[in-house]
Amino acid sequence: MAQTPARVSDRRERKKAATRQALSAAARRLFLERGFDKVTVAEIADAADTAVSTLFVHFPGGKEALVLGDAGEREAALAAAVRNRPEGSSVLGALRDFLATRGPFAPDPEPEARRVADLVVATPALRAYARTLWTSCEAALARVIAEETGRHADDLSLRLLARYVLEIPDLAGTEPDPRAALDTAFSHLARGWPDLP
User: Fold this and answer.
1) Span 41-93, pLDDT tens digits
2) Which of 12, 33, 44, 68 has its CA at 20 to 30 Å from residue 186's CA atom?
């Protein structure tokens, strides 16, 4: 019995997702055991039973991407947070609530998630990559805020707001109390953009 193209495609997608998951899990385990800088991509590929070339097909950003993903995932999540915010919720409130679930801001994270967040903050290469991922979402975030507020996409004020929001994970995430720092940052943003719905 011949398989339909859709069934073959579904199987391929499941296999890709399983490979990505295996690589990411192996990387996190090795990084937490030995430290980010003491693990090679070859060791990660071997632990996930794949080739190094396969690792780079799935994670072109290399070791950092194995921990932090890519900008496309972040852009989509930020856009969804703004577009799907609850009725009556402000754009800033939605962005604050979204960031409050991520990395060092997450309340009561699983122990491994806390250790990964601590690893990112303590590892210069990971921290720099995380900041780059966040700030690379600036144009997309400004665009979705413009769409949701009826403003022009080139509005400098919205581009500034997007940049400030996207700097918060790097700045507030390293404070002794990241959640309090997150609240402080958004309190300042609310004063700077009081008319933002």
Assistant:
1) 999 999 999 999 999 999 998 999 999 988 888 999 999 999 999 999 999 99
2) 68
149, 90 contact by CB (below 8 A): no
pTM (predicted TM-score) = 0.85
Chain segment 87-134, per-residue pLDDT in tens: 999 999 999 999 999 988 988 878 888 899 899 999 999 999 999 999
Q: Does residue 180 contact residue 172 with C-beta atoms inside 8 Å? A: no
Sign, CA dihedral 163-169-175-181, equals positive
Distance CA 162, CA 158 (A): 6
- Name all domains of the chain by residue range, CATH numbers in brackets: 5-62 (1.10.10.60), 70-192 (1.10.357.10)
